Amino acid sequence: MSETFENVSVIKKANVYFGGQVTSRTVQFADGSKKTLGFMQAGDYEFGTEAPEVMEMLGGAMDVKLAGSEEWNTYVEGQSFKVEGNSKFSLKVPAGGADYCCTYLS
To answer: Which of 13, 22, 87, 92 is the most exposed, fewest CB within 10 Å of its CB?
Structure first.
């Protein structure tokens, strides 16, 4: 995982979900691709996707259950997981929260 992004634009307005428990900022690249950098407070969440995504854990931890699975898998700093497009996934974030980078794939 890269520590920095070069030559990008950042949307200043935050993406806010679940009453402020999850926030992120959108980073746009010259090639049109985008990522979000965010933080999740402790809690249980469900997200829906349009495009496939890769979630990189930058700090903390989360338990993840992907669509079509009954298994929960734990991801921690330095790990990542892929989410299929047009699906849903569930997250359980423990005390201390989770710092993440979401890459939207086309």
So the answer is: 13
